[in-house]
Design a protein that fits this description.
Strand order of the largest sheet: 6-7-8-3-9-10
Number of helices: 8
Bound molecules: adenosine-5'-diphosphate, magnesium ion
Helix content: 25-40%
Shape: globular
InterPro entries: AAA+_ATPase, ABC_transporter-like_ATP-bd, ABC_transporter-like_CS, FeS-cluster_ATPase_SufC, P-loop_NTPase
Order of helices and strands: EEEHEEHEHHHHEHEEEH
Domain ABC transporter: 4-252
GO molecular function, one term: ATP binding
CATH architecture of the domain at 3-96 and 172-254: 3-Layer(aba) Sandwich
CATH class of the domain at 3-96 and 172-254: Alpha Beta
Family: Belongs to the ABC transporter superfamily. Ycf16 family.
Keywords: ATP-binding, Nucleotide-binding
Length: 258
Amino acid sequence: MASLEIKNLHVEVEDEEKKTKKEILKGVNLQMQTGEIHAIMGPNGTGKSTLSQTIMGQANYHVTKGDILLNGQSILDWPVDERARQGLFLAMQYPAEIKGVTNAEFLRSAINSRRPENDQISVMDFLKELDHNLDLLDMSQSMAERYLNEGFSGGEKKRNEILQLLMIKPSFALLDEIDSGLDIDALKVVSKGVNSMRDDNFCALIITHYQRLLNYIKPDVVHVMMGGKIVKSGSSELAVKLENEGYAGLRDELGLDV
Ligand code: ADP
Ligand code: MG
Ligand code: MG
């Protein structure tokens, strides 16, 4: 079992144009373990994407206080690719396009970067798994041989992110607004993919504005983020309540002025 713990995390973001820094995360606490699915909901601009970018180690997001622990070890000094090798995954982290690299080549090298030198995946095993997952996601075989993200439609990109998830098999997947812009059929396919990952070696943090996605992927824990903090956590019922009463209702209930 693996754990990912966010402790009193404070993060400043650099505004490159204004040359200023702004504190976005103001003491986030979050504990996740493989075997669990967590969801974070919250109004726009409250720091949800900042949290996922910071966990993945993107530049411009500066931790000023607190820690991020993977299996008890601080990862704050690790670069993005090391975090990926150690099992963290952020769908959006992957480059929009890599010239001259096919989708399949990219996936195989991403898988192998997580495996020891003497235990690389065989071409046969790789292709078998790729076939299986393309089927599961209703993707055509030709998607594998196309150049990564080149000319992919919005829907194809989303499915491809889920294909990456299924192939790379991270321990902790940060899924930031994977439902945005999807029609109901695509939403079902994406949900089926994430649900097929559910097991003791996998944890997902699903970030979403809307409760709709959570009808398809049932979270064990729902967190609400407002003003750069997790202000409430609960069962999946919390998402339903939020959908009905809105964030204003929760603000009043908690006496928040954010
Ligand atoms: P959410 O995902 O909850 O909508 P974000 O984390 O995207 O919120 O943004 C939180 C705040 O941080 C916003 O005010 C946003 O403008 C600011 N912010 C986020 N990333 C950057 C960045 N790279 N440069 C400047 N400001 C940023
Ligand atoms: Mg946003
Ligand atoms: Mg966001």
